[in-house]
């Protein structure tokens, strides 16, 4: 009975789609990562990155952490850092939703907002420059192997267990790419025939949490050989599916989850039979101040 909030990270539910697909030979499951205590899939790598850095002696209670984030990682890091009595400064574009900024501050983090035009790349540049002053330690989710290894050790084994090893396709939106890298590595070890599907935004689509990175900002942890296929989704497609998830499946999520679900449904419509798992990476209440759910 001595559980802490950190002990509640992981073991999230896997639920079967009831209405989005019609072929009874194809099963579509959603992994509800919004059920993590910090509200997103990013609780997993946040805890792993900080705890492993502490174990290796790279950081201590006196270390000041800094990280660039588009939202969910920042919230998770703010929660974990405070529970482990660490100070953290989070850098994000000023057009991030107010819910995200307020949540980070509620956990006690310092939040720096950078120019919206620079996007997450500008936030990353700012954090890199601050780190070079020598007063900060950057976890660097984009290049930290503890990011993808969190999913190798937790997310993927849960999916394998909860589908009784019958999964045929895994679908995930790609941001830092930690989720898809770690899950792919584990699932391919179990069954190399499992297809790994990455989801990216189409041309000019702006979908929070999904990126098509310029080459110079491509996450170092990304290995294209671990992704069998990439599906592109439009912004409208992602918005529509986010609303359908809520209305038809009772799953209240953000737009990146809608994008992944749109790709997953498209994939399911191609299949004669299969077991498809799609990641629902957070909850929709993080987007209520945006126009995502406007009628």
TrEMBL record:
Pathway field: Amino-acid biosynthesis; L-cysteine biosynthesis; L-cysteine from L-serine: step 2/2
Reactions that this protein is recorded to catalyse: O-acetyl-L-serine + hydrogen sulfide = L-cysteine + acetate
Record EC number: 2.5.1.47
Keyword terms, alphabetized: Amino-acid biosynthesis, Cysteine biosynthesis, Pyridoxal phosphate, Transferase
Pfam families attached to this UniProt entry: PALP (PF00291)
Alphabetized GO MF terms: cysteine synthase activity
Named cofactor requirement(s): pyridoxal 5'-phosphate
Tryptophan synthase beta chain-like PALP domain mapped to chain residues: 6-282
Family assignment from sequence similarity: Belongs to the cysteine synthase/cystathionine beta-synthase family.
Name of the protein in its database record: Cysteine synthase
Organism from which the protein derives: Salinimicrobium oceani
Organism lineage: Bacteria, Pseudomonadati, Bacteroidota, Flavobacteriia, Flavobacteriales
């Amino acid at each position: 009975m001595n559980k802490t909030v950190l002990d509640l990270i992981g073991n999230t539910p896997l639920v079967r789609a009831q209405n989005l697909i019609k072929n009874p030979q194809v099963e579509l499951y959603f992994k509800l990562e919004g059920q993590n205590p910090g509200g997103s899939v990013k609780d997993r790598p946040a805890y792993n990155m900080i705890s492993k850095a502490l174990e290796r002696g790279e950081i201590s209670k006196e270390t000041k952490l800094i990280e660039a984030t588009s939202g969910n990682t920042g919230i998770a890091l703010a929660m974990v850092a405070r529970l482990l009595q660490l100070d953290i400064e989070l850098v994000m574009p000023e057009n991030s939703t107010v819910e995200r900024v307020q949540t980070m501050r509620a956990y006690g983090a310092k939040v720096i907002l950078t120019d919206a035009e620079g996007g997450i790349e500008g936030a990353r540049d700012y954090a890199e420059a601050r780190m070079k002053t020598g007063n900060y330690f950057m976890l660097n989710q984009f290049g930290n192997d503890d990011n993808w290894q969190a999913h190798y050790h937790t997310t993927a084994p849960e999916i394998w267990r909860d589908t009784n090893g019958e999964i045929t396709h895994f679908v995930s939106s790609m941001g830092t790419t930690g989720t898809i890298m770690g899950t792919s590595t584990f699932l391919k070890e179990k069954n190399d025939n499992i297809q790994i599907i990455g989801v990216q935004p189409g041309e000019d689509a702006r979908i929070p949490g999904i990126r098509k990175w310029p080459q110079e900002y491509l996450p170092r942890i990304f290995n294209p050989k671990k992704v069998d296929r990439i599906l592109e989704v439009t912004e409208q497609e992602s918005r529509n599916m986010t609303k359908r998830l809520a209305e038809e499946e009772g799953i209240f999520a953000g737009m990146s989850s809608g994008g992944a679900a749109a790709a997953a449904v498209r994939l399911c419509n191609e299949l004669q039979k299969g077991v498809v798992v799609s990641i629902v990476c957070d909850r929709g209440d993080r987007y209520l101040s945006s126009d995502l759910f406007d009628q």
